[in-house]
Amino acid sequence: MIEKHPENPIIRPADVSPSRDGYRVLGAFNPGAVAFGGEILLLLRTAEGCVEQPGRIRVPTYRCQDGDGYPDILEFSRDNPDVSLKDTRGVVYKGRNYLSTASHIRLARSRDGIHFDVEDKPFIYPTGEQEIYGVEDARVTAIDGRYYINYTAVSGDSWATMLAVTDDFVSVEKKGLIFCPENKDVALFPEKVNGKYIALHRPNNSGFGRASIWYAESPDLLHWGNHQCLLRPRENPYESLKIGGGAPPIKTDQGWLVIYHGKGDESRYSLFCLLLDGDDPSRIVRRAAAPLLVADRPYETNGFFGNVVFSNGLVVRDDRIFIYYGAADESVCLAVARLEDLLDSF
């Protein structure tokens, strides 16, 4: 039903140049995807750390000033009493957390959807305090001829969802926060339904329940309401911890096809299919019992964070779906399926 491409991974960290001297690219993964101008564009999450130096702790950081952002390096001696190692993800300096990596969004372009050229410079990067720890996991949705990009913004206030818009994938206009902390995995529908914009989102469940997929409506893509919990994790090995939305839904003659992710036993990630009503996307039509994609190849089970397949970008070409996914929080992979087969899989 679904075929992982034999050339996987199709983009590796080594294919991406660092955004500045002293940085090194540790991950190029979780891309948003869109067809534009005869090409397929990927919006790569590019995670960078610092080149190591003996006896030093170095973490990437951004200085934000006058609406722009500048990548920098925060450096300490390993024996500095004000520094403590939090874990592999960061350090604490004078009571403030810093991450060991910072992410931005980088564009990659392809004619065939398989072989990509990665641009040298960031496309979306931190420019304000709400993004100071990085921008991650972009999703891009074409609506009425414009391209809306939502992405996770990380700061000292935790993670939230930002919205930006572009017409040419050269310049981009940031619209600000659309879902406050802690909320991410937002997927915008590519058209209005009953006169309203629709989104799936994933608020965090701290203390009660497990993180689930929610539904929301908006008159303008900026202000969201009518929030409803749409889908909760099931008691199975693939969804035992949480679930979240993926790429923008696909409109079909049977309803809205959604590919979402589940985090299950031993923190393994998988992908599932879901079908929502075409006229009322808050209503579930069918939900697949078995996963569509699991981590079972070495490039998926071993990496920066192993046993992960995570998709927030796909492109429909004729009757085939090109599903671009992050593998092991490190590289980009491709899986291809026929739309008809996915609809028949429930």
Describe this structure in words.
With 346 residues, this protein is mainly beta. Helices cover 3% and strands 55% of the residues. Strands 19, 20, 21, 22, 23 and 24 form a six-stranded antiparallel β-sheet that branches. A hairpin with a 5-residue loop joins strand 21 (255-263) and strand 22 (269-276). The longest helix is centred in the C-terminal third of the chain and has 5 residues, at 339-343.
* Share of residues in strands: over 45%
Structural class label = mainly beta
What is the count of helical runs?
2
Supply Rg: 19 Å
What keywords describe this structure?
six-stranded antiparallel sheet, 346 residues, four-stranded antiparallel sheet, 27 strands, mainly beta
Topology summary:
Elements lengths: L1 E3 L18 E14 L2 E12 L5 E10 L2 E10 L5 E5 L2 E4 L2 E4 L2 E9 L6 E2 L15 E10 L2 E10 L2 E9 L6 E7 L3 E6 L8 E7 L9 E6 L6 E7 L10 E3 L5 E3 L2 E9 L5 E8 L7 E4 L5 E2 L3 H4 L7 E9 L2 E8 L3 E8 H5 L3
Antiparallel strand pairs: 1-27, 2-3, 3-9, 4-5, 6-7, 7-8, 9-10, 11-12, 12-13, 13-14, 15-16, 16-17, 17-18, 19-21, 20-21, 21-22, 22-23, 22-24, 25-26, 26-27
Sum this structure up briefly.
The protein has 346 residues and is an all-beta fold.
